[in-house]
Structure formats: C-alpha cells, structure tokens
Design goal:
- Helices cover 93% and strands 0% of the residues.
- By secondary structure, it is mainly alpha-helical.
- It is rod-shaped.
- Keywords: Cytoplasm, Nucleus.
- One of its GO terms (biological process) is positive regulation of transcription by RNA polymerase II.
- One of its GO terms (cellular component) is cytoplasm.
Length: 42
C-alpha cells in the first residue's frame, strides 16, 4: 500500500459518505413533505 493508494481510498470513502448523507437528507425531506400533505388534507 503506497501513500497514493491510501489517499485514493480516503477520497473514495469521503465520496461514499457524501452520497449516503445526501440520500439521508433527501429521504428526510420526502418524509416531511408527506407529513405536510397529510396535515393539509385534514
């Protein structure tokens, strides 16, 4: 394992974390929108 390999792995891990974070944020927003629609219907 060279330093370049470790650096590449670090970048990939960061990208995966960002993708996971954006997925979580998007799903949270969708849940909030669904709740708003339900409360508006009542």
């Amino acid at each position: 394992m060279s330093a370049e390999d470790l650096f590449t792995i670090q970048i990939l891990c960061d990208q995966i974390e960002l993708k996971l974070a954006s997925i979580v944020i998007n799903s949270n927003i969708k849940l909030q929108l669904k709740r708003k629609k339900k409360t508006q219907q009542l």
